[in-house]
Predict the 3D structure of the following.
Amino acid sequence: MKRLIMCFLLASGFTFAQEAKVLTLAEAVSYALDNKADAEKSRLDIERGDAQIAEVRANALPQLSVSGSTTFNPLLQENVLPGEIFGLPGQSVRVAFGQEWTSNVSAQLSQVLFNQSVFTGLKAAKSTKEFYLLNHELTEEQIIEKVATAYYQVYQTEQMLENLQSNLDLTEQTVEIVKGLYDNGLAKKIDYDRTRVALNNLTSNRQQLINAVQLSQNALKFMIGMPIDEAIALPQETFDPGFLPEMNDDFMADRTEIKLINKQLELLNWQKKATQAEYYPSAAFVANYGWLGQGPEVPIWNGEDEGVFWGDMSSVGINIQIPIFNGFGTRSRVKQDKIEIEKAEADLRETKLALQLAYSNALAQLENSLITIRNQIENVELAQEVFNDTQNNYSLGLASLNDMLDAERDLADSKNNLTNARLDYKLAEVELLKSQGKLRTLNLNN
């Protein structure tokens, strides 16, 4: 019955694998860059940067505005004038000025002639766009790193399940051998029971690994933005170690983190110059044109027949503003800008040191993992030979059950150690490519 159930599970797994989408690392990365929310948000940040740049440029373009109003004056202000004006010497005459209704429409045009802050902002606009582009590039590299790590962890879990299935097959053979010897009176019942316990434990562990595979696949699908219910399968060759990546001592120049901090320093320097521009005078051209209507009725829809009269007016001029003293406010802001620049320079030094450490560690880990893989491959072969010999000796009565179970356990451990070593190699490969600024070439190595 157990063998029937296992055959059904294996057949179901085979059918599932046949229907699943085969997903390479390159396809996983490409899918993530197209669908992951972080990548989409960084692309939107670029569009937002374009809008911010357009906003800065708008300050240097002509500004045109139109305004209008209608006012009702229920009480007109009266002024007292000398009576001589009206031929009434020695008397004072109260005169109300204005009309009960006034309406006006005016247009104003202004153009910056000189404003150092605006000009500095225009120069910084290009750097702002480059900053958002670099930030988008860094976001994509972070996504690639996370996807690669999750991808290799899926393969590791699948490989461990395969190792366990192989060990399970060997244990089944052992159970059959011990059962045959027990049926013929050549083995003890306790030996048969011990092998059955070992088989049951492996069956339970297998179910746990099946669940772990599903969980790791779900984590990968979430990482790349793929629907969780979509079935995937990884190609067999993905986990094999490749050649050591090309070494590059001058790797700092290619790191996006360094480029991003340098661009941030450039923007901070532009900010300081924009603050210093407050010391400069500014000049702007201003032109106004208006149309004013007054009368005892609403001027908007009445004319001279109703006592409403309209007249136009205009003015042209240049506004000049010369800063003299603002309580040392500008000097304080410049000092704050300098402090921000110094902090960014400190971050740059710290980042370079951290990148050097990551590069050295990744290089050492990669070399050690490659050596470990070679040793573990040999160790798996030796463990397989030891198990085969021990199994034969047990059948001939030349080895104990403990020897056979130990050999079986050693074979399983050596296979898992090889799987872990391969994962360590791949993770170190990702870290090394990242430290060299070549993370985007990762899919070329698989």
Remarks:
- Strands lie at 21-22, 63-72, 78-82, 92-96, 101-114, 232-233, 282-295, 309-321.
- The radius of gyration is 41 Å.
